[in-house]
Structures are given as C-alpha cells and as structure tokens.
C-alpha cells in the first residue's frame, strides 16, 4: 500500500471513529498530495510524498515556535499534534549514531579535510539520508565531524 493509499484509508477510519482533529490533519495532508498531482500532472511517488510530509512538518514546527513565542500555547499544541500525525507516514528515521556512521563514511569517501569541503560532503550525503533524517541535524553532525578533523 502506498503512502497516499494509507492516508486515504486512515481518513475513512477517522471519519468512522469521529475523530475531528485527526480527520482535519489527514485531510490537510491529502490535500497537499493532491495539490502536487494538480501542479505536476502526475501521481506522486512515495519518495515525493515523503518530501511533501517533511515540508509539512517543517512548516508546522515553525508555526509552533511562533505560537510559543507569541504566548499562544493552545495553538502550539495543535501544531505539535499535527506534526505527530505527519510523522506516522515517514520512513523510520536514522538514530544519531547511525547518522554519525554514515557521515563518517561519506567524509572518508569524499576525502573531505575541513569545513571548506562541507558542500561536497552534503552533496554526497543528502541522497542517502533524504526523508530519513532532519537536514538540520545532518548539517550539524557534518560540521562537528569536519571541525574535529
């Protein structure tokens, strides 16, 4: 079952269970997937849907931060709950130890010697971890390991 099919199935289940908040979030995700279909005139692959989900999570994280900074914890909680629903459709995320091992391998294979080589490392690394790790965390680990060299 593709991610899009799973979302559709979960929408039906949420309707039957009368879970309004979950239903709203799932419909939002489904809408984002359908918007991709309209814009690109093709059905998105699971890889593309993972990118759509990651973008949705990032947007909601930024909104939650703004709500927290603005003194609106009620709206922050809603955004954080939506993030958790979106995360259910992402592939299993790498742990920090797994990421460090992958980053070390890529640094060794690219021959990177300093932070100046960060672009080369990130270019080779991101296709390997796309959708399975947060880009900000990957960036931080790469900087840390390149600085230590």
Draw up the topology in text:
Elements: H1 3-17, H2 20-40, H3 46-69, H4 73-87, H5 96-110, H6 118-129, H7 135-148
Helix pairs in contact: 1-2, 3-4, 5-6, 5-7, 6-7
Query: What is the rounded Rg?
Result: 18 Å
| Topology order in helix (H) and strand (E) letters | HHHHHHH
Outline the biggest β-sheet. none
Supply the CATH class of the largest domain: Mainly Alpha
As a percent range, the share of strand residues is under 5%
Number of domains: 2
What's the shape? globular
Oligomerization state: single chain
Could you name the key traits of this structure?
single chain; 149 residues; mainly alpha; Hypothetical Protein Yqey, Chain: A, domain1; Arc Repressor Mutant, subunit A; 2 domains
Structure, briefly:
The chain folds into 2 domains: 3-87, Orthogonal Bundle (Hypothetical Protein Yqey, Chain: A, domain1); 96-148, Orthogonal Bundle (Arc Repressor Mutant, subunit A), CATH 1.10.10.
Structure description:
The model has no long low-confidence stretch (mean pLDDT 92). The chain folds into 2 domains: 3-87, Uncharacterised protein YqeY/AIM41, N-terminal domain (Hypothetical Protein Yqey, Chain: A, domain1), CATH 1.10.1510.10; 96-148, Arc Repressor Mutant, subunit A (Orthogonal Bundle). Helix content is 78%, strand content 0%. The protein has 7 helices and no strands. Helix 1 packs antiparallel against helix 2, helix 5 (96-110) crosses helix 7 (135-148) and helix 6 crosses helix 7 (135-148). The radius of gyration is 18 Å and the shape is globular. With 149 residues, the protein is an all-alpha fold. The chain has helices at 3-17, 20-40, 46-69, 73-87, 96-110, 118-129, 135-148.
